[in-house]
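Message: Just now I want nothing more than another pair of eyes on a protein record. I am handing you a single protein, as its sequence and its fold in token form. As I understand it, each token names a local backbone shape. Take your time, and here it is.
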Amino acid sequence: MTVGPHFKEANNFLWPFQLKAPLGGLKKKRNHYVEGGDAGNRENFINELVRRMN
């Protein structure tokens, strides 16, 4: 998906929503979330990750 000629406007709108690296970092980035790692689909646990990144 691209925003074409309106990239600057779209980028400026999204700027306040940028997230930082999660507090405490990520553990086991190479393993999938369901295998005890940090990569992959978190489904219902995404809110916890966003709180750590805010």
Q: What stands out?
A: The chain is about 30% helix and 0% strand. Residues 22 and 53 are 4 Å apart (CA to CA).
